[in-house]
Prior knowledge:
- Helices cover 42% and strands 18% of the residues.
- By secondary structure, the chain is an alpha/beta fold.
- α2 crosses α3.
Amino acid sequence: xxxxxxxxxxxxxxxxxxxxxxxxxxxxxxxxxxxxxxxxxxxxxxxxxxxxxxxxxxxxxxxxxxxxxxxxxxxxxxxxxxxxxxxxxxxxxxxxxxxxxxxxxxxxxxxxxxxxxxxxxxxxxxxxxxxxxxxxxxxxxxxxxxxxxxxxxxxxxxxxxxxxxxxxxxxxxxxxxxxxxxxxxxxxxxxxxxxxxxxxxxxxxxxxxxxxxxxxxxxxxxxxxxxxxxxxxxxxxxxxxxxxxxxxxxxxxxxxxxxxxxxx
Length: 264
């Protein structure tokens, strides 16, 4: 387990004292404090786009975003609604520019020191667990048969689920779907349970010992969750999401689902 992630999680999530962490891990208190200030940013964003040119409408949009950020989540305007409001103000640009700017603003806002303190505390009971799995599905897009990857998240306590489809199972897409899921859930579970995915685990040892992928550990360090890898061939260790995968596949892909575009 990455020691920086463990130090940050034990202090920032569990509230354990610096002295206690130092004694337990046999490191000095200054080292603990140094680790608490260390955070590797997760690489979950898709390919970068040039910053949207909003001109005189940018201050208006920022003001609306700041106002909405103080409201309950169900009362905040979507990117589509913000775009419509800007059109009423005379904006003639594309919706895509507004959508990208709003998404980046929310990411930047979450990474600020003040928003970290609001985002890290769990909305779920202590010890809550989320299980993760991928499923390959065959769908029809624009008349062509295509194999896609579907990511599944399942909260063990509330049974709430999040499902998203991707063209492939890559490191970048693993990072992206975690970001999307945590935004959807409105918080981060204490533990995330996985199979021994190559995008998550580099080396499998005897028992539960693992060497996790460094890029993936940057994500875990950022969100302060503990990654847990299942014992090989022990699917019951994440049985809830295993059942979800089968049920969702039957609901959505039997008979074969058909879409005009991948975004549908």
